[in-house]
Write a structure and sequence with these properties.
The chain is built from nine helices and 13 strands. By secondary structure, it is of the alpha+beta class. Strand 2 and strand 3 form a beta hairpin. Bound molecules: N-oxalylglycine (OGA) and manganese (II) ion.
């Protein structure tokens, strides 16, 4: 009986996941919680932040407004969960989005395309995709650039999708700028010793989703998980400790930051749907970029390509601390070591959930 029910996948989480993923008829989005307009929602409270722990100059170096200006919220019934509505300084979302598209996919970081392409072919996704993206006509069906085939990038301790583990012998330097941003956000939320050790970047288009999962591969659950989004918006489902617990639907817009910590650190969650930003323009206004030149070889050309990409996409960065301070990795058996090689497989959470 229980197995039969599970096979049909009709528990509360699966049902809502499928509901928001549905195309025809389109779902009713009116009950999706929108923190940017949530001042009167009874579940939403203003989060106390630690403004004194990040000085304005350090916040500014990461592209963040002074912490005293952030709009941060908590949710009744979800202790440890925090939502910060776009705390970035004007222009800075463009910087971070460009890092996600141009810089972070580069070697030695690892991406999904490495599974079936040679290092030579994936050496510079940006160079190979930039002109193709820049010259794209919106709405027209054209061959996909490599960047549009990018689904995930891992940073720092590279997450192994097959074993669902991190390992000490697959580590590359975590990007210094992203570590700095993460540490400022964590400190403002009261986490002073946070170390950005692993990152998973997800790249979504309007037909993408991220299956129901919990992030439990890290070894120190007392440390928060940070999630930062750019581009189009997502419907995010925040569930409970059990996979089938009914989730709360909420929007994540460009620039929004989510913190899962404390007893919310191990909650199930998923992204059933990417939706066009609610402002109605091709890009949300926080991604507007003042044009200074028209030179296709300049930074301006880079932004034109980023903008084209983000008109139909969303990028999400999750940043994690893997180890406790002073902790090292548990010793791995030979059979576990063998399982890590030669190649990683896609985790089930990244497979399309279209049953
Ligand atoms: C993840 C994740 C959520 C998102 O990468 O573990 O839950 O909003 N991402 O993309
Ligand atoms: Mn997750």
């Amino acid at each position: 009986m229980a197995a039969g029910l599970l096979e049909q996948g009709e528990d509360a989480f699966r049902r809502l996941f499928k509901y928001y993923k549905r195309r025809r008829p389109p779902p009713d989005f009116s009950t999706v919680l929108d923190f940017s307009r949530a001042e009167k929602n009874l579940k939403v409270q203003i989060a106390p932040l630690n403004a004194a722990s990040v000085n304005d100059k350090d916040a500014c170096k990461a592209g963040l407004q002074p912490v005293s200006k952030w709009k941060a919220y908590t949710l009744a019934g979800y202790p440890g969960f925090m939502f910060i509505s776009d705390p970035f300084l004007p222009g800075w979302q463009c910087y971070w989005a460009k890092q996600c598209l141009k810089t972070y996919p580069r070697k030695p970081n690892v991406c999904n395309l490495d599974l079936h392409m040679s290092p030579e072919e994936t050496k510079d996704l940006w160079e190979q995709s930039r002109e193709q993206l820049r010259l794209k006509t919106p709405g027209k069906r054209e061959a996909k650039s490599l960047l549009e085939k990018l689904r995930w990038v891992t940073l720092g301790y590279h997450y192994n999708w097959e074993t669902k583990k991190y390992s000490p012998d697959h580590y590359t330097t975590f990007p210094v700028d992203l570590a700095y941003l993460s540490e400022q956000v964590a400190a403002a939320c009261g986490f002073h010793q946070f170390k950005a050790e692993a990152g998973i970047l997800n790249y979504y288009h309007f037909d993408s989703s991220l299956g129901i999962h919990v992030d439990e591969s890290e070894m120190d659950y007392s440390k928060p998980l940070l999630s930062i989004s750019f581009g189009q918006s997502a419907v995010f489902l925040l569930g409970g400790r059990k996979r089938q617990d009914p989730p709360l639907p909420m929007y994540m817009h460009s620039g929004d930051i989510m913190i899962m910590s404390g007893s919310s650190r191990l909650l199930y969650h998923a992204v059933p749907r990417i939706v066009p930003n609610l402002e109605g323009g091709r890009l949300p206004s926080c991604l507007e970029h003042t044009t200074t030149s028209n030179n296709q070889h300049s930074d301006e050309g880079d932004w034109e390509a980023c903008a084209k990409y983000l008109e139909t996409s969303r990028v999400n960065m999750t940043v994690r601390q893997v180890l406790e301070v002073g902790q090292s990795f548990p010793v791995e058996s030979d059979s576990e070591k063998r399982r890590r090689h030669p190649a990683v497989l896609l985790s089930s959470r990244l497979l399309r959930e279209d049953k």
